[in-house]
Amino acid sequence: xxxxxxxxxxxxxxxxxxxxxxxxxxxxxxxxxxxxxxxxxxxxxxxxxxxxxxxxxxxxxxxxxxxxxxxxxxxxxxxxxxxxxxxxxxxxxxxxxxxxxxxxxxxx
Length: 108
Hints:
Blueprint: E1 6-17, E2 20-28, H1 40-44, H2 48-58, E3 59-60, H3 65-69, H4 73-86, H5 90-102
């Protein structure tokens, strides 16, 4: 698992904006300034209001408040998880990688 600065999320329910259909959002790791007014603890726990605030600041194409508020819950959860991943420490990344590599393997 690498320290990604950009990640894409495919939406299960596309967003319709005029005659354009958005099926994927690109999220980038936020800068310190983009966290202004937000609590790191709230971001780390994927607190809904914090996520609703940060998503428009770091997604491409840019979504407005109404569009972010209208995200389907499964898409919102996937986006929030991706954002949370940007804040993982190397130790957390290694632990998750180890757990994922161990899935599906049975003991003798």
